[in-house]
Amino acid sequence: MLFDPTHHEQLGAERWDEERIRTAIRRITTKTEEAFDPEAWWPIHPSDEDGTAFDFYCVHGLYIGAAGVLWALHRLARADAVQLARDYSPAAARLHDDFLRRAGGETPAVPSLWAGEAGILLVADQLAPDPGRTSRLEAVIRENATNETRELMWGSPGTMLAAAEMYARTGDERWRARWAESADWLWDEWRLDDELGCHLWRQHLYGKAAAYLGPAHGFAGNVAALAQLATSDQLAELHARAAQAARAFAVAEDGLANWPALAGGDLLIQGQGIRTQWCHGAPGVVSSLAGLALSDELDELLLAGGELIWTAGPLAKGPSLCHGTAGNGFAFLALYRRTSDTLWLERARAFAVHGLAQVESERERHGRGRFSLWTGDLGVAVFALQCIDGEPAFPTIDAW
Question: How far apart (Å, rounded) are the C-alpha atoms in residues 215 and 114?
Answer without folding.
Answer: 13
